[in-house]
Design brief:
A hairpin with a 6-residue loop joins strand 9 and strand 10. This protein folds into three domains: 274 residues, 3-Layer(aba) Sandwich (Rossmann fold), CATH 3.40.50.150; 75 residues, no CATH class; 69 residues, DNA Binding (I), subunit A, CATH 1.10.30. By secondary structure, the protein is an alpha/beta fold. Helix 2 crosses helix 3 and helix 3 runs antiparallel to helix 5. The strands form seven sheets. It has a nine-stranded mixed sheet, sandwiched between helices. Strands 9-10-17-16 form a four-stranded antiparallel sheet, with no helix packed on it. It is elongated. Bound molecules: S-adenosylmethionine. The site of S-adenosylmethionine (SAM) has 18 residues, from strand 21. S-adenosylmethionine (SAM) binds next to strand 21.
Length: 481
Amino acid sequence: MSAPNFASESIWTGDNLAVLRGINSGCVDLIYLDPPFNSNRLYEAPIGSKAAGASFKDAWTLDDVDVYEHGELADRNPAAYSVIEAARQSHGKGMQSYLIFMAVRLLEMQRILKSTGSIYLHCDTTAGHYLKLLMDSVFGAANFKTSIAWKRSVAHSDTKQGRKQHGRIQDTLLFYVAGARWTWNPVYVDYDPEYVDGFYRHTETETGRRYRKGDLTAAKPGGDTLYDWRVKRRKDGDWVADLEDEWMAPRDEWEYLGVGPYRNRYWAYSKTKMREFAHQGRLVYASTGMPNYKRYLDEMPGVPLQDLWTDIPVALGKERTGYPTQKPLALLDRIIRASSNEGDMVLDPFCGCATTLVAADRLRRKWAGIDLSALAVKLVDDRIAEDRGLWGGATALTQPPKRTDLGTLPNYRTHRHRLYGEQEGVCVGCETHFPFRVMEVDHILPRSRGGTDHPDNLQLLCSGCNRSKAGRTMAEWRAAQ
Ligand SMILES: C[S@@+](CC[C@H](N)C(=O)[O-])C[C@H]1O[C@@H](n2cnc3c(N)ncnc32)[C@H](O)[C@@H]1O
C-alpha cells in the first residue's frame, strides 16, 4: 500500500484511463464506478436543468478504443482477453470494443485499490454478464462478494413491453473486494411492516414498547441450565417468579417449572441470568406459567441488508440535477457506509454529476472523481456548496497525476542495451533490423498520457519511427501510417 499521490477533493476532467495510470498502486479504499452501459444511446441533460449541456455517447465501435490496448490485454490478462473474444463472437464488435474499454480501466482500478479495499461496478443487463466475467478475470472469482439487484424504477410499460418481454426495472451492482481482509460495516434496514405486525404482536401497557416473546429453553445442555424455575400465579392472574435467593416461600405455594433430559429441553440461560431478566422485568409468562423473554423491537438493529434493494427510489425533487443517468445519493450512502470508514479515500472514475463525491463528503470520507465532461466539476462544486453553505472549491485538474510509488527508477535510457538484446535489434515500429546506435528508447504509453519509466512501459524504436510516433500511442501512430 502507498499514500495517494493526489489531494482529496480532486476532480479531473478528461479520460479516466490516463488519470488511473498516474495514480499510485494500493492507495484507494473504495471505488464505485457507473460507466456507460453500452446502451447504444446518446445521453443529454434537458435544457434548463442544472446539468444542461452535459451529454455522453454510449455506443461503441473499434474506433473508440486503442487496439494496442487490446493486444496488451492478451499479455496482461489472458482470461480477460478470452472473455472479450467470446463476447465478440456472440455479440459482435460493438460489445468487443466496449469490453476492451472497460478491461484496461478495470486493470488499473485493481492496481490502485488497497488490499483492504472494495469496488462496486454499476451495470445493467446490456453487458452485465460479460462484465461479471471481466471482473472475475481482473479481481479474481474468489473476491466476488455479491451481485446486488437495485430496483431503479417502478413497473412501467415502455416500448420494449410492446416487444413482448418483461419490464426491465433493475440495475446490477457487482461487489468485489481486493483481498481476504476487506473493510465491512454491516448495514441494517427497517423491518418490513408485515414482519413487525406478524412477530412483534405484543405491546407493553406501561411503556407502549412493542415486543415479541423469545423461547427461554434450548435443546442442548450447556453450563448451569438444569434447574427448577419457581413461579406463582398472583391473585390478579399474572404469573411471577420467586426471586428470593433462598427460595424461602413454602413449597406448596409454588409451581416448579422443570426442564431436563426427560423433556429434551434445558434452560437457555443460567439461573443467575434468569434472575437478572426477572429483575429487569424482561420475563413474560404464558398461561402455563412458562417464562418467555421480552425481545423489544426498538432494541433490534433491523434486518441485515440483503442483495435485493427495493427501497431506494431514483433521484427525485431537489436532488435531481437533470444529469442523464444520475444515481440517487441514498444508493451511494449505503455503499460508502458499508465498505469504507471515515477518512478513507473514495474514488469515482466516471463521476458524472458527482453523486458519489457528494455522498462521500457527507460521510466524512476523502474523495476524488474523474469525468470526460467538464460539467462534473461545476456540478460537484454546486452540490457540495449547497450542503456546506460555504465552499472552497474542488481542485479541478486536467493533467494526470505522476506516480510517486515507483521509487527512483533509473533513467529510462539505461534500458537501451537490455531492450536491444530482447528485441534482437529489431525496431518495434517498422520491424527492421538496425545497428544499436540508431535505436532509441520509447515510452509505449507516452509520459504525457500517464505512462511511466517502468521497464514494462519501454520499447526500442529506430530514430525515424520514434520521431514519427512522438506523443502518440502505438495504435494511434499505426492508424495514421
Ligand atoms: C452513467 S454516467 C455516471 C453517472 C453518475 N454515477 C452520477 O450519478 O451522476 C457515466 C459517466 O461516464 C463519463 N465517461 C464516459 N467515458 C469516460 C471516460 N473515458 N473517462 C471519464 N469519464 C467517462 C460520462 O461523461 C458520464 O458522465
